[in-house]
């Protein structure tokens, strides 16, 4: 039985499983980040690219598909770095994060406002969604 005065139940929040790519350049010196569209949830924040995992796909297939659709690049999906469960005010997410190697294509801002190749040590200069800071910590520890 729930209390009528209790905070909003986590069961009423939207839930998404998201495949996230840590896209390294060929020299493994820079990581690709993109800036969310202003009218999306967490608009204007920088993030590691990826998207919603469809019911019939695994995280690696999702990452390959999303990066081609949203940035017009081909990647080789590598090892899983981390899986994160995080709750935002109106959304629960599971981020399945994989290292990726940029294979081909010049990144294009198809589903974002801009992209940048950045060094790991420079990521603290960009405003990221809260869950992404766990990714940064995992990259620094790796």
Automatic annotation (TrEMBL):
Name of one Pfam family that matches:
NUDIX_4
Any idea which positions bind Mg(2+)? 50, 70
Catalytic activity, reaction form: 8-oxo-dGTP + H2O = 8-oxo-dGMP + diphosphate + H(+)
Alphabetic keyword roster: DNA damage, DNA repair, DNA replication, Hydrolase, Magnesium, Metal-binding, Mutator protein
Alphabetical GO biological process terms: DNA repair; DNA replication
Task: Give the first-level EC class, as a single word.
Answer: hydrolase
Span of domain Nudix hydrolase: 14-142
Q: Which CDD domains match?
A: NUDIX_MutT_NudA_like
E.C. no: 3.6.1.55
Cofactor list: Mg(2+)
Q: Which residues bind 8-oxo-dGTP?
A: 36, 47-50, 132
Quote the SUPFAM superfamilies the UniProt record gives: Nudix
Name the source's superkingdom.
Answer: Bacteria
| InterPro entries associated with the record | Mutator_MutT, MutT-like, MutY_C, NUDIX_hydrolase-like_dom_sf, NUDIX_hydrolase_dom
Q: Name one GO molecular function term.
A: metal ion binding
The similarity comment for this entry is:
Belongs to the Nudix hydrolase family.
Q: Which NCBIfam families match?
A: mutt
What is the name attached to this protein's record? 8-oxo-dGTP diphosphatase
What organism, scientifically named, is this protein from? Pseudanabaena cinerea FACHB-1277
Q: What is the lineage of its organism?
A: Bacteria, Bacillati, Cyanobacteriota, Cyanophyceae, Pseudanabaenales
């Amino acid at each position: 039985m729930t209390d009528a005065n209790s905070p909003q139940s986590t069961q009423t929040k939207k839930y998404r499983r998201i495949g996230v790519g840590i896209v390294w350049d060929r020299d493994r010196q820079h990581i690709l980040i993109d800036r969310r569209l202003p009218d999306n949830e967490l608009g204007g924040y920088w993030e590691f690219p990826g998207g919603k995992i469809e019911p019939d796909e695994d995280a690696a297939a999702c990452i390959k598909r999303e990066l081609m659709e949203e940035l017009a690049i081909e990647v080789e999906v590598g090892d899983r770095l981390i899986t994160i469960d995080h709750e935002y005010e109106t959304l629960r997410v599971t981020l399945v994060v994989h290292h990726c190697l940029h294979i081909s294509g010049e990144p294009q801002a198809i589903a974002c406002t801009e992209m940048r190749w950045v060094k790991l040590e420079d990521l603290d200069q960009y405003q990221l969604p809260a869950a992404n800071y766990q990714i940064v910590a995992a990259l620094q520890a790796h």
